Amino acid sequence: MLITNKHLEDACKDQVELFNKTFPVGAEFNKTNWDLALSVGLQVTWMKRFLDESNRKIYVEATASALKIFDEVKDSALKIYKEATASASKIYDEATIRARKIYDEAIEPAWKIYDEATASALEKYEETIEPAWKIYDEATEPAWKIYDEATEPAWKIYDEATASALEKYEEARAPAWKICYETTASAWKTYHEATASALFNALEQQFNAGKKLPRNLIT
After folding, report:
1. Distance from chain centroid for Cα 163
2. What is the pLDDT of residues 125-168, one digit of tens each?
């Protein structure tokens, strides 16, 4: 079974270019070329859609245990991550709630002034459409200025109140996420290798039985 770039007519540009670079005259379906394709970054697992019912069943059964292991490792890693960051996350959440309350109280008078100014401007806008935006802008401009002046120090207070909690959260999160990522990355690699191997075996069995792939491998 020779696979050429004609089979990849609907593939993404990067994958077609990579295939042409790796296999300029096409690739015979064999273990050497399969492993080479994987090593250079060519996507192959989408080919499972072309398995017939019996070979798809073989593929699913062969990958089931690898998927189960990956899911268990992922769930365990996420649990560790959540436990490691729970305390810092709680402190950060409590700090943001307090800071948000202070912020809202600080800008409340400004919002009141803004709402009163825009209400009057909106009434004039509805009365006359043509000069409406000019009236609206002129009426709300001082209100926006007051609002901005009020929110600037309020945001500063908010940032200062949450900065320490955020720093502690990031300090706790970074190493926990690294462990989580490294653990799941290893499990994902194992799962990916298992699925690629199982897919090759299922496709090989199907090809040996005389069944061909359609002209376009990707639709």
Report:
1. 26
2. 666 555 666 666 676 777 777 777 777 777 777 777 778 777 77
The secondary element (H helix, E strand) that includes residue 123 is: helix 53-127
Q: Render the burial of 158-177: b for 16+ CB within 10 Å, e for the rest.
A: beebbeebbebbeebbeebe
Helices 132-208, 31-40: crossing angle, 10 deg rounding: 160
Query: Closest by alpha carbon to 183, among 96, 77, 85, 78?
Result: 77
Residue whose structure tokens are 């209100």: 143
- Other beta carbons within 10 angstroms of residue 199's beta carbon come to 21
Task: Tell how far CA 184 is from the center of its chain.
Answer: 16
28: β partners: 2
- pTM recorded for the entire structure: 0.50
